[in-house]
Amino acid sequence: MHSERGPASVRGLDPGAVVEDDTVIHAKRRVTLHDMRRLFPVTDETAAQAFGGTAQGEGVRRATGVRAADVPGAHGGSALVDREWSLAELAAAYAYPEPVAGAPRPWLRANMVSSLDGAAQHDGRSQPISSAADMRIFGTLRALADVIVVGAETVRQEGYRPARARAEFADGRKAAGQAPAPVIAVVSASLELDFSLPLFTSPLVPTLVLTGAAAAADRVAAAEKAGATVVIAGEGTGVEPARAVAALAGLGHTRLLTEGGPRLLGQLIADEVLDELCLTVSPMLTAGDAQRIAGGPSVEVPHRFELASLLEEAGFLFGRYRRS
């Protein structure tokens, strides 16, 4: 989920859809990445793909990192292999920066989708501008995170569920010292949340609720009674983004992911705590007045981010931008 949407707006919602990964809903079909290309950073492999799909030398590989000689049954070690990316390769492509020993710095990334004309959704849903590859990356980003930060409105609208453990990422999470599944952290000033939801009553790891010091005592008590851990991250009723990031890091959560919605992302941008934006650009035009990926007041001076990597599949661009 890339934005705050209505109850039927979870990405990938189609007739006959089934729940497969946390809040992700998609059609009953195998989700694969075919013919994905790495466009940036530019390497020998990138140039090789541009010149007819062949390459000379051992150092030239396909974007998946696999040479034909490495694949059983393949011949001609310099030929580029056409196959889908594995989850392990996606995890490597989207890996968080290596933590610094002693005092790991928190790293906050956002994951959003946008049409060519800037819409974060169509008809109240982002599924029409998403793709199978986009959803696979969406699930990978979740599996890499310590915590998923989400706005209260998104939780209210979508009946947010707790993240689940995924066997494909179990070994990697264990090696990184992570819990079996990422924690969900809900940002809320009012705490007007349905604490009977499974997100609060039966998560694999306790859900966090980020709020301000002046939050209503009865709502704090209701959250804690449901099993949530309340984290104070502001002096008033609201949450201060910088304090929220620091509070999560203090709990050992340094690999941070936010999925919005736009109001929350706008606050994170304004407070200059966003380190990275993973943005899917969909090759579609929607017109209309759909909201953008970030809302709220404009910043005084636009914040410059640098392109870290760019993948392409079926016209969809998957960019990673890091703060300059």
UniProtKB/TrEMBL annotation:
Record pathway: Cofactor biosynthesis; riboflavin biosynthesis
SUPFAM superfamilies: Dihydrofolate reductase-like
NADP in keyword set: yes
Gene Ontology terms describing biological process: riboflavin biosynthetic process
Keyword Oxidoreductase included in the entry's annotation: yes
GO molecular function terms listed in the Swiss-Prot or TrEMBL record: 5-amino-6-(5-phosphoribosylamino)uracil reductase activity
Keyword terms of this UniProt record: NADP, Oxidoreductase
Domain Bacterial bifunctional deaminase-reductase C-terminal positions: 106-309
Protein known as: Bacterial bifunctional deaminase-reductase C-terminal domain-containing protein
Species: Streptomyces filipinensis
Record lineage: Bacteria, Bacillati, Actinomycetota, Actinomycetes, Kitasatosporales
